[in-house]
């Protein structure tokens, strides 16, 4: 379990001190794959003086979509459907759209999961139609649906699309969705505090009710739970911060090479949920973030690419009376969940800031990359040639013809002499190469330092995919300090030989 520094815990304790909270309560937690590392409750979830506890239940709304997607992928893993299947093959009431030229544009299961079906955004309507019966929903589908985009082209957030996935699950399994999901996913994962209906909790369980306000929180009125019907598969779930920590830890464990359990859903399928499939605009509920260099929808999850830390998976939830957000760093499993029991709170802003503070403080790598043995051997050989003769052509490793022909030998020698002089000459003794690895872009790439008297050389090489692998590129730069690192990909860290 990751230990959070005392100063970070203090900052988290006071995170909302200078924020005007227009919500009866907020429950938030930091977690890793082992579970909750920190929890704090603010406000009164029942308006009775009690702050939310770690086991207080909140409605998580559209955070449910990641659970639903996992269920669809379980069915694919069992050979009962394929992502390429047409929706019309599983839901006879559904009709594919037709373009202006009369050409049918097929919609697939995958398009629904990645929000590229072409169905338009429907949150305002869907939030109040969550309780539609299966028959009533299928009547809506049979009457025809209008498409705002060509299927497969662009992102449009569609609740109806996920409701269709729920119908598919029921048609394929012959089971009611919530019962099948509970038996297949929730119970095996030990998510004992996660349910699709508040009525399924034992009497006396603390469940945060939903509230609304028209005067910025001066007074509150009850927002009864929106009924659960056909839309329950995509937005009806209730959970706790502990269960969300367990859920996200299971998803992110797909990126942990030491975690080998594929019994419920394969690691490959779970990784696919957390990979960008449909590019999306920047988040409208958060300030512009220069460190966010890409965002999109995966399968049932949003995926962000952070300049420094790499991939972050996340999803918000919102229903009348509730707001939520969960997010985690896929490589390390560090994450944050924020619940509020009113709508419109935009917990994604707080969750983003908290996770950024945790990542900045703990500094996990964006990725840990295990270099090929041939990559490490080439680095050792190149370094030895630099030390012995000053000519990389003498390296005892296969070199690609372009490496020597791209730069004349005399120019190479002059450049290397200048670089060595720039660090005051190279030291006669050095730490092992494994201790001097700085970053890697892939298993076929490595960067490392050679210490000098007044600085260090950073060497970077790339290997070919051939057998044997050849050194196809070599760059050498002067750094003023041994601790300096190239700014590019500096959080893509290579593992030492024999380590992860």
TrEMBL record:
Q: Which residues form the Beta-lactamase-related domain?
A: 23-345
SUPFAM superfamilies, per this entry?
A: beta-lactamase/transpeptidase-like
Q: Origin, by domain of life?
A: Bacteria
Task: Name the chain's protein.
Answer: CubicO group peptidase (Beta-lactamase class C family)
Species annotation: Conyzicola nivalis
């Amino acid at each position: 379990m990751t230990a959070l520094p005392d100063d970070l815990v203090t900052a988290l304790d006071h995170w909302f001190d200078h924020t005007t909270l227009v919500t009866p309560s907020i429950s938030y937690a930091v977690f890793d794959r082992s579970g909750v590392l920190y929890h704090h409750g603010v406000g009164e979830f029942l308006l009775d003086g009690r702050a939310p506890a770690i086991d207080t239940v909140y409605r998580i709304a559209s955070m449910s979509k990641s659970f639903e997607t996992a269920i669809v992928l379980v069915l694919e893993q069992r050979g009962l459907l394929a992502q390429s299947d047409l929706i019309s093959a599983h839901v006879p009431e559904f009709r594919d759209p037709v373009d202006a030229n009369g050409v049918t544009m097929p919609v697939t299961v995958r398009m629904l999961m990645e929000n590229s079906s072409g169905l338009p955004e429907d949150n305002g309507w869907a939030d109040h139609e969550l309780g539609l019966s299966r028959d009533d929903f299928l009547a809506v589908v049979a009457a025809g649906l209008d498409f705002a985009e060509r299927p497969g082209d662009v992102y449009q957030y569609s609740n109806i699309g996920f409701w269709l996935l729920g119908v598919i699950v029921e048609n394929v399994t012959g089971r009611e969705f919530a019962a099948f999901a509970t038996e297949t996913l929730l119970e095996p994962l030990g998510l004992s505090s996660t349910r699709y209906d508040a009525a399924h909790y034992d009497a006396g369980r603390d469940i945060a009710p939903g509230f609304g306000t028209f005067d910025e929180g001066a007074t509150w009125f009850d927002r009864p739970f929106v009924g659960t019907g056909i839309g329950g598969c995509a937005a009806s779930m209730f959970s706790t911060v502990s269960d969300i920590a367990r859920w996200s830890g299971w998803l992110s464990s797909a990126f942990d090479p030491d975690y080998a359990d594929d019994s419920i859903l394969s690691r490959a399928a779970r990784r696919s949920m957390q990979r960008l499939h449909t590019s999306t605009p920047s988040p409208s509920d958060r300030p512009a973030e220069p460190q966010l260099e890409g965002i999109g929808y995966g399968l049932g999850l949003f995926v962000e690419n952070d300049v420094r830390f790499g991939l972050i998976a996340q999803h918000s939830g919102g229903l009348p009376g509730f707001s939520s957000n969960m997010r985690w760093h896929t490589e390390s499993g560090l994450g944050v969940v924020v619940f509020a029991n009113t709508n419109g709170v935009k917990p994604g802003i707080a969750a983003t800031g908290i996770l950024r503070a945790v990542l900045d403080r703990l500094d996990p790598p964006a990725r840990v990359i295990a270099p090929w043995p041939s990559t490490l051997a080439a680095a050792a050989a190149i370094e030895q040639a630099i030390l012995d003769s000053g000519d990389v052509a003498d390296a005892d490793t296969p070199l690609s013809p372009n490496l020597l022909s791209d730069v004349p030998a005399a120019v190479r020698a002059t450049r290397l002499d200048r670089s060595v002089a720039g660090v005051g000459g190279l030291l006669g003794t050095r730490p092992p190469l494994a201790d001097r690895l700085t970053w890697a872009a892939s298993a076929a790439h490595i960067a490392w330092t050679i210490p000098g008297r007044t600085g260090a050389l950073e060497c970077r090489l790339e290997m070919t995919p051939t057998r044997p692998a050849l050194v196809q590129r070599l760059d050498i730069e002067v750094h003023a300090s041994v601790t300096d690192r190239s700014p590019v990909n500096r959080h893509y860290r290579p593992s030492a030989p024999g380590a992860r």
